[in-house]
Amino acid sequence: MNSPLPTSHQALTVPEVMSALRMSRFKVYDLIRSKRLPSFTEGRLRRVPADAVATYMKNRLEEAA
C-alpha cells in the first residue's frame, strides 16, 4: 500500500497532516488541542511526528472495526 505520508520527513507540518488525513486545518488543530494527535512546537512552528499520524489512523481503523 502506498502511504500518503512523506517518507523522508519524521516531523510533519500541519498542511502535510491535512493532506495525509484529508482533513481541514480546523479539524487537525482540534485533534491537536484535544490531545488525540500529539504534536510539539519549536518557537512558532507546530510539528506532528509522522508516526503519531500513523498511530492515529491505526487507532481510528480499530475503533471503526
From TrEMBL:
It comes from the Bacteria. Pfam families: HTH_17 (PF12728). Residues 12-60 form the Helix-turn-helix domain. One of its GO terms (molecular function) is DNA binding. This is Helix-turn-helix domain-containing protein. It comes from Streptomyces marianii. The lineage of its organism: Bacteria, Bacillati, Actinomycetota, Actinomycetes, Kitasatosporales.
